[in-house]
Amino acid sequence: MNFVFKPNFLISSVILISLILITGCTPECTTINYVNTSIEIESGNLTHIGLNTNRDSLNFGKVSPGAVVERSINVEYSKPAQVKVTAEGDFSSWINIIPAEFSLSSPKTNQEMNSEITLETKLIYFTVIVPEQALIKKYSGKIKFCFQE
User: How many distinct structural domains can be found in the chain?
Assistant: First the structure.
């Protein structure tokens, strides 16, 4: 019996193996939450401190090229979960997330109150390091929170 090499078979096999490896190595998210994020780059050295009290997004404010900006978010979830935090968008490579992966434990009932539930929270730090050659414009993206129960 002679084996005839067929390129379509090889391509199909490579695609199938790749899909198995990708889906096998990536945990599925039980729940995904997104937080909008943005930063605006302006020319010159800005001399003011940017404060942001917005609780619906992660805004790094108006900054100069070369600036370093830090923000933080408290993360909580109603069930025990493994959490993975990633950045998406046109300035995601500038964002450092610490910790980017962590665990949250089970919610606890307050024994004294017999009904109040306490959720574990984790403080996550987001540090943006703006490149010196960043274009003067507004950048946007999303922070993705993947919860795996």
Answer: 1
CATH classification at residue 46 = 2.60.40
pTM across the whole model: 0.74
Q: Evaluate whether residue 22 is within a structural domain.
A: no
Task: Write out the chain in H/E/C secondary structure.
Answer: CCCCCCHHHHHHHHHHHHHHHHHHHCCCCCEEEEEEEEEEECCCCCCCCCCCCCCCEEEEEEECCCCEEEEEEEEECCCCEEEEEEEEECCHHHEEEECCEEEECCCEECCCCCCCEECCEEEEEEEEECCCCCCCCEEEEEEEEEEEC
Q: What is the pLDDT along the chain (149 residues), one digit of tens a residue?
A: 454 544 444 444 444 444 444 444 445 899 999 999 999 999 877 655 555 556 678 999 899 999 999 999 999 988 899 999 999 999 999 999 999 999 998 777 666 656 667 788 899 999 999 999 999 999 999 999 999 99
